[in-house]
Amino acid sequence: MGLTKQYLRVLPGPVFGVVASQRSNIISLPGRKEKSSRCVVGACENVYIYDQTTKEKVLTLAGEKFEVTSLAKSPKSEHLAVGYMDGSIRVFNMDTCQCEVTFQGHKSAVTTLSYDTDGLRLVSGSKDTDVIVWDVVSESGLYRLKGHKMEITQVLFLKNRDILVSSSKDTFIKFWDLKTQHCFYTVVGHRTEVYGFLLLRNETRLVSGSADSELRVWEINYLESQEQDMEVSESTSGPPVKKPKLTEEDESSCDERDETEKAEDEAMKILTCKKLGSVMRQGRSRLVTMCTDPEEKLLFCHGNDKNLEVFALPSDDELNKLIAKRIKKLRKKHLESGAEVDTSNVRLQLNDEMKHLQTFRFSSKLWSVHICSDTGHDLRFSALFANNKLETGTFTYAKHEISLNNVVAYTHTGHRTDVRTLGFSSDNFMILSASSEEAKLWNRDTQQCIRTFQCDYALCNMFVANDKHVILGTKTGKLQLFDIDGGIMLHSFEAHQGAVWSVAPMPDKRGLVSGGADHEVKFWNYELTMDSQSKRKVLSLEHTRTLKMDEDVLCVKFTPDQKLLALALLDSTVKIFFTDTLKFFNSLYGHKLPVVCMDISYDSTLIVTGSADRNIKIWGLDFGDCHKSIFAHDESVTCISFVPKTHLFYSGGKDRKIKQWDADNFENIQTLVGHHGEIRSLAISPSGNTVVTASSDKSLRIWEKTEEPLVLEEEREMEREKLEDEALLQTGEEVVPGETTEEVKMAGKKTLESIKGTEKIMEALEIYETQLEAIQQAKTKKSAPPALHPMMMAYQSETPVDFVLETIRRIRASELMGTLLALPFSDVSKLLPILDICLSQQRETELMSKCVNFLLKIHQGEITSNPSQAKILDTLKDHTVQAVKKQRDLTAFNAAGLAFMKKYVEDNKGIKMFADATVKRKKKKRAVLAIH
């Protein structure tokens, strides 16, 4: 048997160049005594927290694979909920930067998140049209609300009622009663998709925005409060009115009608929503973000443009003053005539409640805006733009005027547009990235930007003159030469009539060659010329000769021995010429679409080509024969490069993957997944240990070669197991017995962890039976007790019941329901007696009660129809009631003891515990202001 060839594993390294991704929203956090004001943004799969005082990134909440799509901050703690593209939700503690809870329930990207006022419940909406309510304390899902037909755009808890409001692209806004988990009211007045809404004026006004320029305003009337007001008015209005006497038939018909009306009222009439009118925005694009300041004095909104519109929201006192002013004006007008003045027609208009105040125009398109309170009377403003940039500042609102001050842009750590070309310096120290507006030099070790050059739209690059200069080929046909030390552009040469698609250095380092869209290949030599300004010699380029082709030249490469020159043309062929005479040598044809990238091995024997037809071809340079054609990527191949001094090479494509290949045995060694957009460029360090890639998600990623060996057979086996796991999960939506409504479903979904948890419980039950049988045999034979099972020893369990209990305890709370749901009924009948033993011993009462209630709910039919289960049901009932009662008494006793201790300390020491110091400070401040 031959030896298996081993490779070295390549692992992902740092991610840099991305300021903020435009898929998620931005959150502005107010400053406190120990912390300055901050803003939270999603950056690919990570979450960045920027300090708005120092203008630097202070925290990173690391993600795993999928891109961040939504953020929500808990109002009562330092917890941050993060929604991802795969539908998962992770709750981070921003003090420790650790993930504390993971929720799995959605099947596609999470689009919106929101906490309730206490921070105990979290609601999420997704592209899968579902709304899920999660219990953050118990780390589990409560229920899934189904009713919308398209993507959910926003969800929100009401502050004073157990009601949830959701909006969707299906043009509807729905009100959900969380006590009964059903939709009791639907707002149907929109013609296009609803992209967001706000609740104002103590949740009596609903402002919604859609795909048009209107902000629709709705009045919410809560019928419960109206009924209470009517009861109070009836009790104070005087003696009751005597009703006429009715016949028996009339009474029966009235009773039936009353019962029908009562049923309708209970089902539907919790509130009513009446449209008051519309307020027009100046922007014509769809609404993107709509928010208010904490005191609800201002409303901010914007669309898919650069304008941020601000509306004033006068308070009730200001509106009353406005009405009084209008009445006074009306009376003054009719004072001379002496006629009676009818003031009943003096009413507020919608424009009085929402006044357009001002429009602020920014340099780029807005993606998300958030406002929070700041020191003094200012408002802290954070804006996320669609071009990898964010800005912060303060709004000052006084005397019905608003101004934007102290605007700071976070731009130096990334490009505004896609990076189209990458390069490594010869000393492995610097990385060059260039886009349509600028080129940046990065330190490879620290990922900090060293230099920034303003340039034209760059398509290709190369380091020259011992890494002291950089040459860029641009879309305008120029070759731009930059001095790295001085950070200035030395020369700009009009090289081609069209775009310069590729430049390649000559192996003897005396010059370079460029290929462009004007069908020409030009040769350039380096020379020193006198600079008229600095009076010193600087590097320049001299055009020596030109090779005319019939098609656009997309890529040029020299063989390392400089004997041959390869040119990739628009006609899908690669032409090879002798370098010295420029005579035609060979033509490589076989690609169906143009070759956009290619590279030549260090020994000048192999050339690899990547094409838009998704294929990679490996050719021999001696005879031009195709060694292998590989279907490499699911979309176009965009970049390809050999590892120095090897026959290994990397390829990147629009399918967001980087793949490592062996050109000798045509094996795919490793697939690197991490980018969330099309991969544009790739560069390998001269040492071959580092790979840097650029993507349309604005991120630059470093991949490092390690000393860990990689065996292909093991990799293939791991890939097969992964595919099997994915196939196991794709079995459709789980059906819970007893669920008859299509509106409410179980919150969680089948995950790999829940399947593993089910297998662990089934294994624990088998070990429990085996160990119990061995103990019974030992008692019968009066021999020594049997040895513990190795799994019981690993779990440090002394008895079989302890082992099953520890197995259940180790399952995450968010996965427990899914684990129990997948458990077969035969194993459920084995598990219930064990849960009964734990409850009789009052161990883990809360966990055991949750398991018992869930199992009895989903297996009610089988258990009630089986006479053998009657006994266990009776004992479960008694033991559960006793255990819960004791737990309740213990909690009440502890609460009473703490209350007594608090009162004792307050009486003896004359202090007030757990008092909000800010309340006293605000009262004192108001008193001082009143005096002045």
TrEMBL record:
It is found in: Nucleus, Nucleolus. GO terms for cellular component: Pwp2p-containing subcomplex of 90S preribosome; small-subunit processome. WD repeats lie at residues 61-102, 103-144, 145-186, 187-228, 412-452, 493-527, 588-629, 630-671, 672-704. Residues 803-902 form the Small-subunit processome Utp12 domain. Residues 229-263 are annotated as: Disordered. SMART domains: WD40 (SM00320). InterPro entries: Quino_amine_DH_bsu, Quinoprotein_ADH-like_sf, SSU_processome_Utp12, TBC1_cilium_biogenesis, WD40/YVTN_repeat-like_dom_sf, WD40_PAC1, WD40_repeat_CS, WD40_rpt. Keywords: Nucleus, Repeat, WD repeat. One of its GO terms (biological process) is maturation of SSU-rRNA. Its main location: nucleus. Signal peptide: none annotated. GO terms for molecular function: snoRNA binding. It holds the Pfam family Utp12. The keyword GTP-binding does not apply. It comes from the Eukaryota. Residues 248-263 have a biased composition (Acidic residues). Belongs to the WD repeat WDR3/UTP12 family. This is WD repeat-containing protein 3.
